[in-house]
Specification:
The structure holds two protein chains of two kinds. Chain A has two domains: about 50 residues, no CATH class; about 80 residues, OB fold (Dihydrolipoamide Acetyltransferase, E2P), CATH 2.40.50. Chain A has a five-stranded antiparallel beta sheet with strand order 6-5-4-7-8, with no helix packed on it. Chain A has a three-stranded antiparallel beta sheet with strand order 2-1-3. Chain A is mainly beta. The longest helix of chain A has 7 residues. Helix content of chain A is about 5%, strand content about 35%. In chain A, strand 5 and strand 6 form a beta hairpin. Chain B is α/β, with parallel strands linked by helices. Chain B is about 35% helix and about 20% strand. Chain B has 14 helices and eleven strands. In chain B, the strands form two sheets. Chain B has a nine-stranded mixed beta sheet, with helices on both faces. Chain B has a two-stranded antiparallel ribbon with strand order 5-6. In chain B, helix 10 crosses helix 11. Chain B is globular, with a radius of gyration of 19 Å. Classes of the chains: A mainly beta, B alpha/beta. The interface between A and B is large, with 40 and 38 residues.
Chain lengths: ~140, ~375
């Protein structure tokens, strides 16, 4: 999947604007509850642990593990080149993100559940960027 | 136990029909009523969805009814098991006396299915999932399958056997889309085109037109009708996540909660189930549900599949019409689980009849393991 050919531009809204703004500087934010400290992703209007509605932002170090993954062989839209890796990555801070795995062959035997991954970025044409993940170290 | 019964069950035309949704809906409703020995004039409750934005009013208008009770909860293909539960409550409470639960789709004829699902710009998935191009719902089930195989040390062949058993049943059901297709082998499934690993085309359900209806009424009224009543023994439900990253553990399947509630209400245990109709959108789906429902130990549903226990002659007959994998999958399959469960308990299933079936389970799964609804049915004794 190459950024040059996939023309999908994610929308943003007043809730997610700070999260998207941080991606312009390649910083990954997590939403954090000011009442109970719970961290969550995707951003919501309420803390799913304690029900408080006063939520702030905290940076993620961008390290985690592959929770599960799939190699996709059919594109859901024009401009997406197959095959590519879709994964759930569990950040060390707790929350799970849906993402793509990059800098690794899109094959089932090239990735494992539990593989440690680290944050990378795919720049969008409007200056924002998508957090994606690559295997740690020399993979 | 409840004082409620299912008294009619029927399919509309299936496969590639060239017919409209409303025509298929009317087929389903009128055929199920005829099966029950009732008419439209007896009906005072309707539950359906996917007719239009205002599904129950559209259907009521089409058939010339002014129902006292309707439901069109839109939770995916498991809605119909939930409708039966709600209908039972409405009948028990006196708001309705005869409820028709129906569904129809012409998705194959209309070519209305898309791999990426329907994009809703204002919802979180458009920002936090769609950019990564998962197939919806397929890639979520694929990730659940990957986690399942990894956790229990199983392989793709364990998934494949689910499709093989479904085909074996479909070969005994003249209405099945794959009735004349001949047997499917594990190698056929493993060698099919990969779509979203570990799921191949043959691990995925059909895309067909179709649907059906069931008629729900009081047990008292059911006993005056010509065909034997099928008792509603229990029901349960769980609504879960809708985003792919929400659930902490993809194998924490909400069917466990739905099943526990249904068995408790029925005063039964999983060992009492003689025949199971469990939503098979993908080969992984019934494996996860069977384990969550307690019909298999964790990690064992795949093993049972490989032993052939789910197929004809097996100890745990599953999806005896051929399932969404080989019989019919009109986008929301749940109503057809109920239709087949009723037929099995009435002994109407011919070559695929499970001898002596007295308790049947119908379990629906909606969305991306997002909604789970269990119905337990039994012969009236």
């Amino acid at each position: 999947m190459t950024p040059e050919t996939d023309t999908y531009l994610p929308p943003s809204d007043e809730l997610s604007a700070p999260w998207w703004d941080a991606t312009r500087e390649h910083r990954l934010l997590l939403q954090q509850c000011t009442a109970c400290g719970h961290r969550q992703h995707h951003p919501r209007y309420v803390c799913t642990r304690c029900g408080a509605t006063d939520l702030g932002w905290t940076p993620s170090a961008g390290n985690g593990v592959v929770d599960t993954f799939t190699v996709v062989h059919r594109a859901p839209r024009a401009g997406v080149e197959t095959p590519y890796l879709v994964a759930r990555v569990r950040l060390d801070e707790g929350p799970v993100l849906l993402t793509n795995l990059v800098e690794v062959e899109p094959r089932d035997d090239a990735v494992s559940i539990g593989t440690r991954v680290t944050l990378s970025w795919r720049d969008l044409p409007d200056g924002r960027a998508l957090p994606v993940f690559a295997p740690e170290g020399d993979a | 136990m409840t004082g409620i019964a299912l008294v009619g069950a029927a399919e509309c035309d299936l496969g590639k029909t060239g017919r409209s949704v409303l025509e298929l809906q009317v087929q389903a409703v009128t055929r199920a009523l005829a099966d029950a020995g009732l008419t439209l004039a007896d009906v005072d409750g309707l539950a359906t969805n996917a007719v239009g934005r205002f599904s129950t009013t559209e259907l009521a208008d089409q058939v010339g009814l002014r129902p006292a009770w309707v439901d069109s909860s839109f939770v995916g293909g498991s809605a119909f098991e939930a409708y039966v539960a709600r209908a039972a409550q409405a009948i028990t409470a006196g708001q309705a006396s005869v409820v028709v639960v129906s569904f129809a789709s012409n998705q194959r004829s209309a070519k209305s299915r898309s791999l990426g699902g329907l994009l809703e710009d204002h919802l979180p998935a458009a920002q936090f999932e769609t950019p990564y191009a998962p197939l919806y719902p397929l890639s979520y089930y694929a990730m659940a399958a990957q986690a399942y195989l990894h956790r229990y040390g199983l392989g793709r062949e364990h998934l494949a056997h689910v499709a093989v058993s479904a085909r074996d049943w479909a070969l005994r059901n003249p209405k099945a889309f794959r009735y004349g297709a001949g047997p499917l082998t594990v190698d056929d499934v493993l060698g099919s085109d990969m779509v979203s690993s570990p799921l191949t085309v043959a691990d995925c359900c059909l895309v067909t037109d179709g649907g059906g209806a069931v008629v729900v009424t009081s047990l008292e009224r059911a006993r005056d009708l010509a065909k034997p009543a099928v008792r509603l023994l229990g029901y349960g439900e769980c609504t879960d996540h809708t985003n792919m990253s929400t659930l902490d553990d993809v194998l924490d399947v909400g069917a466990a909660r739905a099943g526990r509630a249904a068995f408790a209400r029925a005063g039964l245990t999983p060992a009492d189930v003689d025949v199971a109709q469990v939503y098979d959108s993908f080969t992984i789906t019934p494996l996860l549900s069977l384990e969550a429902l307690g019909l298999a130990e964790p990690g064992q549903a795949g093993v049972l599949a490989a032993l052939g226990e789910f197929g004809p002659g097996g100890s745990r007959p599953l999806n005896t019409a051929g399932g969404g994998l080989s019989y019919c999958h009109p986008g929301q399959y749940g109503v057809l689980l109920l239709v087949e469960a009723v037929r099995q308990l009435r002994g109407e299933c011919g070559d695929r009849q499970v001898a002596g079936a007295e308790v049947a389970l119908a379990h629906g799964t909606g969305g991306i393991l997002s909604h789970h609804a269990t119905v337990l049915l039994g012969v009236d004794r």
